[in-house]
Amino acid sequence: xxxGDENDILSSLRISYDNLPTHLKQCFAYCALFPKDxxxxxxLLVQLWMAQGYLQxxxxxxxxxxxxxxxxxxxxxxxxxxxxxxxxxxxxxLSCKMHDLIHDLAQSIVKxxxxxxxNDVKIVPERTRHVSLFNKPNEMPKVLMGKSIRTFxxxxxxxxxxxxxxxxxxxxxxxxxxxxxxxxxxxxxxIKLGHLRYLDLSHGSFENLPGGITRLKHLQTxxxxxxxxxxxxxxxxxxxxxxxxxxIDGNNELTYMPSGxxxxxxxxxxxxxxxxxxxxxxxxxxxxxxxxxxxxxxNNLRGQLVIEGLSNARGGDDKEAHLETKQYLECLxxxxxxxxxxxxxxxxxxxxxxxxxxxxxxxxxxxxDYEGVRFPNWMMNDRLDLRLPNLVMVHICFCRRSQVLPPFxxxxxxxxxxxxxxxxxxxxxxxxxxxxxxxxxxxTLIIVDLPxxxxxxxxxxxxxxxxxxxxxxxxLQLRNINTELCLHLISVSSSLKSLKIMDxxxxxxxxxxxxxxxSLAQLSIKDCPNLTSLPEEMRTLRDLCTLEISGCPFLSExxxxxxxxxxxxxxxxxxxxxx
Length: 579
Fold this sequence. Notes:
The chain is an alpha/beta fold. The protein is built from 12 helices and 24 strands. 35% of the residues are buried.
């Protein structure tokens, strides 16, 4: 592109910028903080705008600052100043990029107020307020010392000793601080940054945070992702009353959550809540750790919440989570998983689980290692379709003692059901006389290691039953289940596109009606040693493009290319893998 042409385009883009409302102008210009072609996460950008005070409180009482920020983002996207990179289901944009010329426009607007530090930068003007580093510099630029920096965004590995107290203490005006590298000890000078709203210490190697960090009364976002050695919270976390996002993951040594966290009632992001057991510090004093009652008043929690260590739950405080009031939660994971054997009685597990009923807006439910003799009443309710009508995903694994599954077939929007290692389950609760369709929206069904499963809903064992409709079922995976049930489930939907059958030793042949699965594109059969043949009706599956057979010695022999007895039945399939 010629220089004159580029200048003409920039002039035209400048007109678009000039027409922006004031609140969008500063949000757009701030994006010069990121290099060209950088994938900018929407949630990160909103948090940074919020930290800088760019978000105007809406007159709509139902909108919080994050909602306002999301609206700003969408407005810039609709004006083509951003272009989307990543979407989640429902077309919610997760990240974006800026075209190179758009980035040039942002840089021309902010001039030296926003600078990306490289090894070529020797001078930082006095008017610079926001700096970022994305490549490892030869040394931490001393030119930043004494500047009124409001954003310090280090997204590159750096081991220079300048990231220590002396360096950090120069940023007393900072609202945003990101230092992502293996920091062995968090500088205590951080506690002097009284204006700090956003602090990201991810990828650190430290074991704890300085106690004074709880003095950062304006802190809104604290990120501690991939901090592999982190194991101890500071005291008085309850002082962080403005904390809105506490982002942690499972890549650490934490075994508990801090006491008093429940007083941070503005919290929206809390991906994991670790329910710990009693532990003592080096002075043989019992640590005060948060019980499930810390969640009681955190009614602004959004997105995902994983509750780990439910085997440590006790009566009283641990039955006061009040999840039914968390209307913005979309995904709930209830995990009893622990490294050592639990002493919790089965009935006590049921009692704790009864107290964890989620809000009806929940979309995804995961349950791991639950050892109760039955699932809680809020799951076994005959009107589950009214209790949890918005569920689209259910995943249950290693719940060995429960014998009856909840009536999942009622759920009107359930798209994915995954059941793993439920050795005690015998059937699924169902109302055989219900006029409503069975699994009306289900697209994916995975059943792995349910060897005692005798029926798939009571209607399966009723006289003259009608097969469940499954009008949307596309992906079916079955492993180690009753042969009769396996054959039944294969037959329920002609819309199947993918079918996997594994470890079904009682299966000797596929039925002739497999030819009715006219949409089938992938078929995988593994570890079915007694399966001896494929029916001629396989020839009618014209959309079948992949066939995989392994661990089936008799069938493998019959399907040998050109010479096997069943080869004519499968020779039309483009991709055949036999092991």
